Amino acid sequence: MESPFKADILKGKVALLTGGGSGIGYEISTQLGKHGASIAIMGRRKNVLDSAVSALRSLGIQAVGLEGDVRNQDDAVRVLESTIKHFGKLDILVNAAAGNFLVPAEDLSPNGFRTVIDIDSVGTFTMCHEALKYLKRGGPGQDSSRGGIIINISATLHYTATWYQIHVSAAKAAVDSITRSLALEWGTDYDIRVNGIAPGPIEDTAGVSKLAPDDMLKEMEQNVPLYKMGEKWDIAMAALYLVSDAGKYINGTTLVVDGGLWLSRPRHLPKEAVKQLSRVVETRSRNAPVGIPKSRL
Ligand code: COA
């Protein structure tokens, strides 16, 4: 689908994306690149990075792949330094690296819980922490009037509770909290905007294939108020909006892009029954003698 944004809105900008070589992260890399940004992608798997970089370059995007694990602080430091070496500065950090698997809480070892917290929550904080000196107003290659932008990819799992996702729910709750705290502190001190995106079920992603077997997907679609799964493109467009000047006053928000799924509940009454019932109750209460409490009607 064609982007509704102008092709040069990120001209001259540099973005680093963790987990930017595959899935949602790769689509965000592509769209930021198509709109003018130079792209550095960080990931653990060299082969994934290599093929992502050559695909980005074939689209005319300046791109580099940097091997590293967000759980390792030295990797974070090295990858950020390499980004600066390649492109001279950093304007946008997107934390898209994540780990996930379905598991009942009773079968999850504390180390399994910790692993996901380490990737999603600690990894996000580490990348933000190490990127600060490059992103802040007046940092290397930055102009002195504006700071950079951070986007943290989150989820909606923890808005209520999600079956067999205790580790990821806890990890993403921490990510949202990090987003708000950094928006407050770094927005104030360094003019850095920090926002999140919480995707719903997005087709053709590891998230969906790991968490929902094929036969569950159709059922899942029926539960989305818009009756369809999201596309990676939808998440990338949300990212573009947040990093562009259109989002210049948005700070500390996690934008939910899920077709309304997290709000969805089964209807407990058919719509026609609600209309009938509501009229009867309203008429009864209007005609009630004065002095009788409505609770007794
Ligand atoms: N069920 C239960 N526990 C699991 C598990 C599963 N499916 N997969 C991993 N674990 C546990 C392991 O048993 C281990 O705990 P233990 O030492 O107590 O046994 C712990 O998690 C670490 O596992 P390990 O395989 O060593 O971790 P890793 O660092 O190699 O891989 C994962 C990290 C597990 C998150 C892996 O799924 C991954 O790399 N994911 C990245 C891609 C991804 O998930 N994308 C989807 C994004 S939505």
UniProtKB/TrEMBL annotation:
Enzyme Commission designation: 1.3.1.124
Reaction(s) catalysed by this chain's protein: a (2E,4E)-dienoyl-CoA + NADPH + H(+) = a 4,5-saturated-(3E)-enoyl-CoA + NADP(+); a (2E,4Z)-dienoyl-CoA + NADPH + H(+) = a 4,5-saturated-(3E)-enoyl-CoA + NADP(+)
Cellular component, GO annotation: peroxisome
Uppermost EC category: oxidoreductase
Any one Gene Ontology BP term: fatty acid catabolic process
GO molecular function per UniProt: 2,4-dienoyl-CoA reductase (NADPH) activity; oxidoreductase activity, acting on the CH-OH group of donors, NAD or NADP as acceptor
Tree of life domain: Eukaryota
Pfam families, per database record: adh_short_C2 (PF13561)
Name of the protein this chain belongs to: 2,4-dienoyl-CoA reductase [(3E)-enoyl-CoA-producing]
